[in-house]
Amino acid sequence: QLQLQESGPGLVKPSETLSLICSVTGGSITNRNYYWAWFRQPPGKGLEWIGSIYNTGSTYYRPSLKSRVTLSVDTSKNQFSLKVRSVTAADTAAYYCARHCRGSTTWYEGFMDVWGQGTTVAVSS
Amino acid sequence: QSVLTQPPSVSGAPGQTVAISCTGGGPNIGAGFDVHWYQQIPGTAPKLLIYGHNNRPSGVPARFSGSKSGTSASLAIAGLQAEDEADYYCQSFDSSLSDVVFGGGTKLTVL
């Protein structure tokens, strides 16, 4: 059974870089049927897609975050990771990683069928 | 302001059927992109309920169904149970924004 687990610091200072890792167990991140995605949810608010990455390193990002976000994949560790630079209080959120399945015709309209439990990150000095 | 519009809340008594709407526009639902639905119990991760308009993952009861027409989609929950009390989100893709978009979420209360 596939499981995803987020890990990383729960507190990051303003202007610094938020770094999270998603560890995948029970399946291979190199499975070519899936992308791997990051989402976040600010306290009391809705879900927001951050970006998705394929096992080859191919990525696509939420346009409004693209300048500050980098996704990477480490197939040897069966992990993928998220970095958000120059964080502010607006980046405080629960962060989730998920498996991204292809939609009917494109990856862009795909859906997330397996989610990690999430990790809370606060941005504060 | 979410690209996809959902009612903030809906409610129903046990056993009843409720529907949650998700209204978009030409660049997203109206363009034919898939609509997916998630259930989220506060404090936990989202769970996929419906994908590709009306497909249920294994383990999701047949009480949950989806539909789509024009620029809108809808999630119906039949035979409401107390355990259905949660937040529900629709998701699609917007070609003008090049963005995966969500509705703002709907809180379902089982009376």
Polypeptide structure, described:
- The complex is a heterodimer of chains A (125) and B (111).
- Chain A is mostly beta strands and 125 residues long.
- Chain A has strands at 3-7, 11-12, 18-25, 34-41, 48-53, 59-61, 69-74, 79-84, 93-101, 111-115, 119-123.
- In chain A, the strands form two sheets. In chain A, strands 2, 4, 5, 6, 9, 10 and 11 form a seven-stranded mixed beta sheet that branches.
- In chain A, a hairpin with a 6-residue loop joins β4 (34-41) and β5 (48-53).
- In chain A, 39% of the residues are buried.
- The model of chain A has no long low-confidence stretch (mean pLDDT 96).
- Chain B has 111 residues and is mainly beta.
- In chain B, the strands form two sheets. In chain B, strands 1, 3, 4, 7, 8 and 9 form a six-stranded mixed beta sheet that branches. A three-stranded antiparallel beta sheet of chain B has the order 2-6-5, with no helix packed on it.
- Chain B has strands at residues 9-12, 18-23, 36-40, 47-50, 64-69, 72-77, 86-94, 99-102, 106-110.
- Chain B contains no helices and nine strands.
- Chain A binds chain B through residues 46-49, 62-64, 96, 101, 103-104, 106, 108-113, 115-118, and chain B through 2, 33-34, 36, 38, 40, 44-48, 51-52, 57, 89, 91-93, 97-105.
Topology:
The complex is a heterodimer of chains A (125) and B (111).
Chain A: E1 3-7, E2 11-12, E3 18-25, E4 34-41, E5 48-53, E6 59-61, E7 69-74, E8 79-84, E9 93-101, E10 111-115, E11 119-123
Parallel strand pairs in A: 2-11
Antiparallel strand pairs in A: 1-3, 3-8, 4-5, 4-9, 5-6, 7-8, 9-10, 9-11
Chain B: E1 9-12, E2 18-23, E3 36-40, E4 47-50, E5 64-69, E6 72-77, E7 86-94, E8 99-102, E9 106-110
Parallel strand pairs in B: 1-9
Antiparallel strand pairs in B: 2-6, 3-4, 3-7, 5-6, 7-8, 7-9
